[in-house]
Amino acid sequence: MRIYKAKDYQALSRKAANIISAQIIMKPNCVLGLATGSSPIGTYKQLIEWYQKGDLDFHEVKTVNLDEYVGLSGDNEQSYRHFMNENLFNHVNIELQNTNVPDGRAEDMNTECQRYNNLIRSLGGIDLQLLGIGRNGHIGFNEPEEAFEQETHMVNLTESTIEANSRLFNDPSEVPRHAVTMGIKTIMQARQILLIASGEDKADAIQKTIFGAVTPRVPASILQIHNSLTIVADEAALSKCDLGNKDMLVL
Ligand code: F6R
User: Fold this and answer.
1) What domains can be seen in the chain, in order of their start residue?
2) pLDDT in the model for residue 164
3) Distance of CA 91 to the CA centre of its chain
4) Which has more confidence, 172 or 13?
5) How many beta carbons lie within 10 A of that of residue 6, not counting itself?
6) DSSP secondary structure string, 184-247?
7) Which residues are catalytic?
8) 8 Å CB contact between 33 and 128
9) Where are the strands (E) in the chain, listed by range?
10) Is the CB of 139 under 6 A from ligand 1?
11) How far is the CA of 139 from the centre of ligand 1 (A)?
């Protein structure tokens, strides 16, 4: 794995956007796996800026998002589809039909999970998967469990995730209790993974991800065995990791 230490959130976002841009430039019709949440907002802003300057072209890019809340339709402001449209897709020249988010309103969630797995396969897999990380080490909505869940599946959200996400809802009781998420196997099959983390509340999860045992109790720990993992984190998120005084480290 390659670890970049960024001074702050802005520097982290710029570095992550650089890595995604490189992917788009090297393979204009690439498949990007995307994430929502607070972590990637700065990265998406930077990509939009470079697109507006004429340095990036999204017209052949395809995307698959990690997850979606169950019960929210794409036009609900709290849905991840809405988040992606607002924070990236509406501001670049991507074809909306090339962007994919699981359907949280599908009638039959098992069929929806199968559809999403087949879709990712039919696109030829994911070239670069962007990930944030939860304070408990979750990736996508793969929460700490007894075993790694493999493909797209429905999950019960843990109280800590519901609480962390409630900041984005008017009332904590509105936070959905279920979500649909890509599984660990799907994420691990991405050809490249880019994990971003900012802030001290991620420091424990990042320390366990890089140096801890590989265990489904810390879902992100499995990333240690991916052969093309890049972590971009700010100083606060890396505050529990001893990297010497290096800004870039290959482990
Ligand atoms: C969202 C996702 C989640 C978040 C994680 C961190 O699509 O997959 O795993 O990446 O909950 O969220 P933030 O970035 O808001 O701290």
Assistant:
1) 2-250 (3.40.50.1360)
2) 83
3) 19
4) 13
5) 21
6) HHHHHTSSEEEEEE-SGGGHHHHHHHHHS--BTTBGGGGGGG-TTEEEEEETTTTTTS-BTB-S
7) 67, 136, 138, 143
8) yes
9) 2-6, 31-34, 62-65, 67-69, 99-100, 128-131, 153-156, 178-181, 192-197, 229-234, 248-250
10) yes
11) 7
Q: Which of 196, 167, 212 is nearest to 35 (CA)?
A: 196
How much distance in Å is there from the Cα of 30 to the middle of ligand 1? 23
The pLDDT of residue 213 is 97
Output DSSP code: residue 123: T
Overall average pLDDT of the 38-67 stretch: 98
Q: Tell me what pLDDT residue 100 has.
A: 98
Cβ(138) to ligand 1 under 6 A? yes
Pocket test for ligand 1, best of 138, 142, 200 (most atoms within 8 A of CB): 138
Give residue for tokens 């890089």: 210
Residues 177-214: pLDDT tens digits?
Answer: 999 999 999 999 999 999 999 999 999 999 999 999 99
Whole-model pTM? 0.97
